[in-house]
Design brief:
This protein is mostly helical and 164 residues long. It has one domain (14-161): Up-down Bundle (Ferritin), CATH 1.20.1260.10. The chain has helices at 14-44, 50-77, 86-92, 105-133, 136-161. The longest helix has 31 residues, at 14-44. The termini are far apart.
Length: 164
């Protein structure tokens, strides 16, 4: 099925815009998946570090929600249609299913840090792809999101690195 697009006076060539819309929509689906995983961690965490992790996971989610919006808006700026339906996310996300099933804080820290690391890797690939294609603005958006993702990975992983 051909994706709908709209005319725009954006001076990037149509073929480049089409390529970037596809790349952006792929990362949009991953971002929505990551946001859902953040909320699963936030809702279900239990244990002695409950309040610290509950609040941390919510802060991570807040930034990921902004990433979702930033990516979706770039799709539309380029004349595309943001594809963030749950059906598309389920069918096309590159992230593994959320890894925690219990409530233990460490289990959620492991699961969310793994998701953040995988997401960060996807972003770095997207930075390179957008840069090689010649869309510096899209590469910059992915770079901004990559920096934020690495920060949150650091914050979450710190809970695994200290001995108890």
């Amino acid at each position: 099925m051909k994706a709908k697009s709209y005319p725009t006076k954006n001076d990037l060539p149509a073929s480049l815009r089409k390529k970037m819309i596809t790349l952006l929509n792929a990362r949009l689906m991953d971002s929505i998946d990551l946001q859902t995983q953040c909320k699963l961690a936030h809702w279900n965490v239990k244990g002695p570090d409950f309040i610290a992790l509950h609040e941390l996971f919510d802060k991570v989610n807040g930034d990921v929600e902004e990433y979702v919006d930033l990516i979706a808006e770039r799709v539309v700026q380029l004349g595309g249609v943001a594809d963030g339906s749950i059906q598309s996310v389920v069918a096309h996300s590159h992230l593994k299913p959320y890894g925690a099933r219990g409530g233990a804080g460490r289990e959620h820290v492991e699961a969310l840090s793994s998701a953040l690391a995988a997401y960060g890797k996807l972003l770095r690939v997207a930075i390179d792809a957008a840069d090689r294609a010649g869309d510096k603005d899209t590469a910059d958006i992915f770079t901004e999101i990559s920096r934020g993702t690495d920060k949150w990975l650091w914050f979450v992983e710190a809970h695994l690195q200290a001995a108890r």
